[in-house]
Design brief:
The chain has about 80 residues and is an all-beta fold. It is built from no helices and five strands. It has one domain: OB fold (Dihydrolipoamide Acetyltransferase, E2P). It is found in: Bacterial microcompartment.
């Protein structure tokens, strides 16, 4: 799983049948310091209703049709992160 921030929307006027009706979001992975990691930006299928600036968990294991496509899915919107211990 990847902790990421939603940084934008991806507009695709034509999609394969399996992705029709899905929202595509641009996400940037976060490091241990919770800051964006340079060159770690992905497009993910939104399955939870996330929006720009939300912190989310992104997973490729739950990707739609992963046997056909290498896609990532947003599987959770993160409310709080507790660091330390």
């Amino acid at each position: 799983m990847i902790l990421a921030t939603v940084t934008g929307h991806v507009v695709a006027t034509q999609k394969c049948d399996q992705l029709r009706g899905s929202n595509l979001l641009l996400v940037t992975a976060l490091g241990d310091d919770l800051k964006p990691i340079k060159d770690r930006t992905y497009v993910a299928v939104d399955s939870v209703g996330a929006g720009v600036a939300d912190q989310v968990l992104v997973e490729d294991y739950f990707a739609l049709y992963k046997e056909q496509y290498k896609a990532m899915s947003i599987v959770a919107i993160v409310e709080k992160i507790h660091k330390g211990c």
